[in-house]
Amino acid sequence: MEAPEYRRVIQIAGEEVTIRTIRPSDREIEAEFVRRLSPDSRFLRFQNVVSELKPDMLERFISPDFPDEMALIAVIEEDGKSKQIGVVRYSREDEDPKTVEVAIAVADEWQGKGLGAALLGDLGDVAKTVGVEKFVARILPENHRMRNLALRNGFYVISAKYEEGIMELGKGI
């Protein structure tokens, strides 16, 4: 099933930002977005050393298998071209069809301005339309920005398995 076309224009830090459904035609801006992230941001997002997306991962990211997967991107216009500045996605959990794992990345220069909260809220709106009731985020314990963003937006700590190097956060939507 094809993902629904979602689109909303908001103002962040005095700039017009469009939050919309990711599409296969976003291949280049998605790849460039990941390349532009700082090494720390890439590591915290992918929980591994990644310099750029491998072709199979890029293909999966730009073609989510809706309704089990969904992704929204945030874009601005810069020099007459679309520039991706954020992405949020979910993937349905196998054990519980009403629970999805959520992941988010925001360009370093856009962090701390409210974009992450907007992306999470919009993804929640889309997820509810397909029966999703809960978000789960699995993050590295040292990912303080994501933990703070999540806690400010209604997430709670489910478990902190420091010996396994993971913290699990949840939120009803």
Topology summary:
Elements: E1 7-12, E2 15-21, H1 27-36, H2 39-46, H3 55-62, E3 69-78, E4 81-92, E5 99-106, H4 115-128, E6 134-139, H5 144-152, E7 156-161, E8 166-172
Parallel strand pairs: 5-6
Antiparallel strand pairs: 1-2, 2-3, 3-4, 4-5, 6-8, 7-8
Describe the structure.
- By secondary structure, the chain is α+β, with helices and mostly antiparallel strands.
- It has a single domain (7-132), classed as Gcn5-related N-acetyltransferase (GNAT) (Aminopeptidase).
- It is 28% helix and 36% strand.
- It is built from five helices and eight strands, in the order ββαααβββαβαββ.
- The chain has helices at residues 27-36, 39-46, 55-62, 115-128, 144-152; strands at residues 7-12, 15-21, 69-78, 81-92, 99-106, 134-139, 156-161, 166-172.
- An eight-stranded mixed β-sheet has the order 1-2-3-4-5-6-8-7, with helices on both faces.
- A hairpin with a 4-residue loop joins strand 7 and strand 8 (166-172).
- It is globular and about 45 Å long.
- The relative contact order is 0.15.
Outline of this structure?
The chain has 173 residues and is of the alpha+beta class. The protein has helices at 27-36, 39-46, 55-62, 115-128, 144-152, and strands at 7-12, 15-21, 69-78, 81-92, 99-106, 134-139, 156-161, 166-172.
